[in-house]
Amino acid sequence: MSKRGENRGDDKPARALRGRAGRMKNGRGSGRASAGTVRLWGHHAVEAALRNPDRRHRKLWATREAVEALDGELPSDFPVEWAQAADLARLVARDAPHQGLVLECEPLDDLFLADVLDGDPARPVVVLDQVTDPHNVGAIMRSAAAFNACAIVTQDRHAPPESGTLAKSASGALEILPWVRVVNLARALEEIAEAGYWRIGLDGEAETTLAEALPAGPVALVLGAEGDGMRRNITQHCDATARLPISDAMESLNVSNAAAIALYAAETR
Q: Which parts of the sequence belong to the RNA 2-O ribose methyltransferase substrate binding domain (predicted)?
């Protein structure tokens, strides 16, 4: 299994683009992503992907106005096809806010959990148990990157794949936050514990508040799907459960909002 950061065959880091392209056409794109690729859209998601040296890029469709709004330049041989906004809409999901930019690229390489557990112990790990909505996972990535988390951990199954919807919600965080996908989440939690992390599962029914449960040392924040919460086996692999002290007037928070609050609490303890 390869790792992000290894040589991907590209000598030049991809940078964002302003005003020039190597190959320009007036026609429309194919309307389908090539096999083994993902299609990203939106200003922040595409610009971050273009800047990411770990990405292999295939092609960029763009309006001239959107390209002018990007920061920096791209190598002159980068494949770009000028398009109208209506044509770009045919390349992405229905009503997706492409903002004049659609990038076809290869998925990021897989990471091993051990790769992210030997870094700064002050940076939390975020573990998601069967959170399947790409908007929620993308929003959690954005908060995790903002509050200095070292990684997000999900299962291979019961988690959204890398996609334009997730990347748009992550607003660039997909390119900078390590994302570890594991086969067995309980086993991953055991590995996290062996690395010295205190595992706290967010549970609205817990007696202890998160502020009371947070340790001084390394912490892993575990969040379950909305409605069902964490599965029993995952709860049993946590060292403690804790709740956010929200008003009785509200039953619960969206999982992405809960993650943002928990990350803030971990960053400011």
A: 39-111
Pair 104, 127 in one domain: no
- What are the CA-CA distances from residue 153 to residues 36, 141, 266 (Å)? 22, 10, 17
Single out the residue of 223, 221, 224 nearest to residue 267, CA to CA.
221
Tell me how far the alpha carbon of residue 73 is from its chain's centroid.
25
Asked if 81 and 25 count as a contact pair (C-beta separation under 8 A), the reply is yes
- Residues 123-174: tens digit of each pLDDT: 999 999 999 999 999 999 999 999 999 999 999 999 999 999 999 999 999 9
Question: Mean pLDDT, consecutive 10-residue segments, the chain of 269 residues?
Answer: 39 38 34 74 95 93 90 74 92 90 95 89 95 97 97 95 96 97 98 97 96 96 92 98 92 94 96
User: Domain of 60?
Assistant: 1-110
* Inter-CA distances, 257 with 191, 217, 263, 267, Å: 27, 24, 10, 15
* pTM reported for the whole predicted model: 0.85
132 and 158 Cβ atoms separated by less than 8 Å: yes
CATH of the domain at 54: 3.30.1330
Whole-number Å distance between alpha carbons of 46 and 14: 11
Question: Which of 229, 238, 230, 242 lies closest to 269 in space, CA to CA?
Answer: 242
